Amino acid sequence: MEIVFATKNKGKIKELKYLVKDLETKILSIEDINFNEEILENGKTYSENAMHKAKEISKFSNKIALADDSGIEILAYNNAPGVKSSRFFPELSYKQKNRKIIADLKGLTGAERSAKFICAIAIYTPGGKSFICKAECKGLISHAPVGKNGFGYDPIFFLPEYDKTFAELHIKTKNKISHRAKAFKKARKILVCLTR
Question: Is residue 11 classed as helix, strand or coil in its secondary structure?
Answer without folding.
Answer: helix
